[in-house]
Amino acid sequence: MGLTISNLFSRLFGKKQMRILMVGLDAAGKTTILYKLKLGEIVTTIPTIGFNVETVEYKNISFTVWDVGGQDKIRPLWRHYFQNTQGLIFVVDSNDRERALEAREELTKMLQEDELRDAVLLIFANKQDLPNAMTVAEITEKLGLNQLRARTVTVPPQGDVPYEGLDWLSNELSKR
Questions:
Q1: Which SUPFAM superfamilies match (predicted)?
Q2: Residues 117-161: pLDDT tens digits?
Q3: CB 88 within 8 A of CB 121
Q4: Binding residues for GTP
Q5: Which residues are documented as binding site?
Q6: Active-site residues: which are they?
């Protein structure tokens, strides 16, 4: 009942609600990105055991972002967060070439899940400022993104990545 009233209230007053799941391998920078979006600045973080959840208000949309830990022992729990997810943010450490295949395998597994079939996919190529970071083209190739069919996906170029990504997510999700 409360959810119905909340949905009606948001429709009347124009604020859309979006549920976003942010995942990726450990040390990719998920929590740093979450708090950059929430607070507008980089904060010191520790490895996430479990999850962080924050509401990010951006361009008349209220994003509820679930940041779930990426350690290999936690990854099987990701599926418990899939239900009602409208947008999926997969964070990749652009500087971690050795684990690009592992990231691809985890992403591929997730994208086969029925509960995520309608979710738009945003890839954050994090740590692009490091000297040996993979380019967006390399990440696209290593993750096999060109092979994805029937899925809306983007990898924003380097820049103010979190906000460019939210722009793209808000545009894609408002089409639905």
A1: P-loop containing nucleoside triphosphate hydrolases
A2: 999 999 999 998 899 999 999 999 999 999 987 677 888 865 555
A3: yes
A4: 24-31, 70, 126-129
A5: 24-31, 48, 70, 126-129
A6: 71
